[in-house]
Write a structure and sequence with these properties.
about 100 residues
Amino acid sequence: MSTILRNATAWQASRITKYASVFNIGLQNTFVYRWNYFLRALFGLVPLAGTVFLWSAVFKERGGELHGYDYGSMIYYYLLIILRTNFKSQPTFGKAKSMRCSRSR
């Protein structure tokens, strides 16, 4: 009886260890992608801040207007261009569709 109980306990322990390992790997993958997203977002702000400070200096030097644009409208235009570029450069939708529609050979 004690042998059966030990075997059952060992089997349950190995099963729990297996699921704990799978959970741990999934957790690591989740944090890798979140850290990747966070770092990309953080380092994406550096060129944005540089451009904003550059345009600020240009508009201060020119007296607040440059070829009919003021500082606010130039920053708004720049942010719209960044938004459009981000939507255009995300190829995941096309890849997901091609993966879904492809046939394995």
